[in-house]
Amino acid sequence: MKWGIVAFLALVLITSGCIGGNGNIEKTSFGGENMDLTGKSILMVIAPSGFRDEELLEPKKVFEDLGASVTVASEGVDSAKGMLGVVVSVDEDVKDVDIDDYDALVFPGGSGASVYFHDDEILNLVKEAYEKGKVIGAICIAPSILANAGILEGKHVTSFPSEKDNLEAHGAIYTGADVEQDGKIITCSGPHAATEFGLKIAEVLSHE
Q1: Which tens digit of pLDDT belongs to each residue from 175-185?
Q2: Which of 158, 165, 164 is nearest to 196 (CA)?
Q3: Is CATH 3.40.50.880 the classification given to domain 37-206?
């Protein structure tokens, strides 16, 4: 099952034109920009179970191919299982995270991401990251984490359609685009745009 998922993700990336024949993201692959994330550190926070596989794996590959260090964090588990069956090791528990160690905070979505909607520890982490000027990304339903943390008022954002009302209730301007950027906040509507999401985060981070 794992190999089938890996093969599927590789096919998606290759056919999207985002990786070259050597399997690596090209540094000029997005908007003609030279992107190099060497020395950058990115924290990706996933649900203990039910995160969306592509929304973790595709951006993570983008970041690592461009030279970033990626840490996968979750809550209370040593490994986490995605909605499509992939199992990934968890590098750090969210309770031990020091946001000063990271340049970006990214939330993959999937049904499990709702576990963080009202998690005070996670919401405080988002607020701290925002106050310290970190790049913040969220995809699928995960933008509601950012909304509930109170950082989206007046921001142009997107998400899975189910979160539109919640985002707007917290003062966000919902666009419904595949990927939306407002300053250092990048949001995405779902797994079909996961690679584009990763590349947009990389673009913003490369200018930091």
Answers
A1: 999 999 999 99
A2: 158
A3: yes
Strand partners, 138: 107, 187
Task: Output the pLDDT for position 171.
Answer: 98
Torsion angle in degrees (nearest 10) through CA of 29, 35, 41, 46? -20
Q: Per residue in 114-154, pLDDT tens? A: 999 999 999 999 999 999 999 999 999 999 999 999 999 99
Question: Is 140 an active-site residue?
Answer: yes
pTM given for the model:
0.86
- In 3D space, the residue among 63, 54, 72 whose CA is nearest the CA of residue 30 turns out to be 63
Whether the CB-CB separation of 178 and 195 falls below 8 Å is answered with no
d(CA 35, CA 101): 21
Residues 61, 15, 207, 173, CA torsion sign: negative
Q: Which of 140, 142, 199, 202 is catalytic?
A: 140
Is residue 66 within 8 Å of 35, Cβ to Cβ? yes
Q: Describe the chain by its helix, strand, coil percentages, rounded to 5.
A: 40, 25, 40
Contact 68, 201 (CB under 8 A): no
Kindly report the number of other CB atoms within 10 A of residue 156's CB atom: 16
Intervals of the chain under pLDDT 50: 1-23, 25, 28-32
**Cβ atoms of 148 and 123 closer than 8 Å:** yes
